[in-house]
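User: Predict DUF4390 domain-containing protein's structure from this.
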Amino acid sequence: MPAWRSAETNFPWRHLGLAFLGLLLGTQCTASESFNIRSASTQLVKGVYRLHAQIDYPLNKEVKTAIESGIPLIVNQEIEVLRLRWWLWPKTIKHIILRYQLKYHALSEQFVLTYLNQDTQRTYPNLTAAIKQLSTIKHYPLITRGELDLHHNYRIRLKTSLSIKDLPAPMRPLAYLSPQWYLDSPWFSWLLESPNI
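Assistant:
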């Protein structure tokens, strides 16, 4: 296969015009519903606190058009473990970003969700199925009991966002100007349950 055709398959530049049109139309609209952490909790299992969460990822028409045109999107899930202090701001003792890439593979007509932290991927027959997988965090090993000072209290917080800076370079200027691309959640926080000593 000629090299130019292989490159085009990897990234469909010819579809950028359609994505640009979506961006331009998006600037005429009000910002849509953004991402939302529906629930989140931790559970101590064999000395490891494991994270569970359910997240809503509503995608507006402009973002869906970009995905279906072959534009890869990066979604970040950001987690912090904070040690609470009486007279000072909480101290961040752990900061983790789980990064996912969502893209449409035109040849197979499948949606590909890649967990970039481990470079593992799964394919889905439609966007709804891929988003459903992205929306669930199960049994993520967050922190061990041994990493905590049992004389302090801790708070966990989680948020998620679409990474505009990871869009293809030609799209970024318009994305930064369009409210349709500012998709993120507020922080969702909860106290870490105290382990039995």
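The chain has a mean pLDDT of 84.
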